[in-house]
Amino acid sequence: MPNSHLTQLLIDARTSNRPLDRESRFQIPATADGADAVQIAVIRHFGPIAGYKVFQVEDRDGCWGAIPAPRVMDATSGPVNVGVPMKVEAEIAFRFKEGLPARGNGKAYSAAEVWAAVGEAFAAFELLDNRYPFLSAPDPLLVRADSMSNYGLVCGAGVSDWRERVKADVGVKLEVAGRRVVDQRGGHPAGDPAHPLTWLANALAGTDHPIKAGDVVTTGAFGGGHAVRPGERAVAEIEGFAAIEFTCGAA
């Protein structure tokens, strides 16, 4: 198991819903590949990989975090309730209808090919959980080893005509406990929320966990993360998509 001690600490933290503390002793991964090996080992402990979060802008390299199947939650039948205080981010996410494995000729996927493999898009909440609260600025490789602080993804109702709805100037509103915390047009880190999909597809194609049919991918927040405390409800409205709700249960 890669960096087995850190891997086990993160598994224990996720199992107990308790973060690491100052007494934890672990080795920071030396490389991005080492951090990714830790997060994959952690995620696979909880089930198959069902999706990813990705951060990538322009033509630069990005980073990703894997999400296990039990933490991809469906809000289409009603509000999702999770009994752990955390932060929520309002995002647009995508569900793939086709897999994108490595090709025999080694050729990279184009944006058009990646977008053609997407079956639908939907409004989503990314749920964030800080498992290093004792570190004011954790090493980026530590964050990457912990799936970029992902707790899970709450998925709204999808639309198949997504390309005409996903745009750089989409309107977004987010309320937490009745307070409007995001009200903006545009502001996605990548501009076009679909832009990071191509980088991610090609970054994963050469691994043993390429994007597969059914995987969901979320590509970044509008307006940052906002704390949701026990008993509070978050509601996100993203132009062109059905609204979604998330309720924080008792801690």
Describe what this molecule looks like in 3D.
- The structure is a single chain.
- By secondary structure, the protein is an alpha+beta fold.
- The protein has a single domain, classed as Fumarylacetoacetate hydrolase, domain 2.
- It has helices at 4-16, 32-46, 111-116, 140-145, 196-205; strands spanning 49-55, 63-68, 72-74, 80-82, 86-96, 118-128, 150-155, 171-176, 179-185, 216-221, 226-228, 233-238, 244-248.
- Strand 8 and strand 9 form a beta hairpin.
- The two termini are 32 Å apart.
**Category from helices, strands and their pairing:** alpha+beta
Top-tier CATH class? Alpha Beta
Q: What does the main sheet amount to?
A: 8 strands, mixed
Low-confidence stretches: none
Q: What is the fold named in CATH at topology level?
A: Fumarylacetoacetate hydrolase, domain 2
Quickly describe the structure:
The protein is 20% helix and 32% strand. The chain is built from 5 helices and 13 strands.
Write a concise keyword list for the protein shown above.
single chain, 251 residues, alpha+beta, Fumarylacetoacetate hydrolase, domain 2, eight-stranded mixed beta sheet, 20% helix, 32% strand
Topology:
Blueprint: H1 4-16, H2 32-46, E1 49-55, E2 63-68, E3 72-74, E4 80-82, E5 86-96, H3 111-116, E6 118-128, H4 140-145, E7 150-155, E8 171-176, E9 179-185, H5 196-205, E10 216-221, E11 226-228, E12 233-238, E13 244-248
Parallel strand pairs: 1-10, 3-7, 4-13
Antiparallel strand pairs: 1-2, 5-6, 5-10, 5-11, 6-7, 8-9, 8-12, 12-13
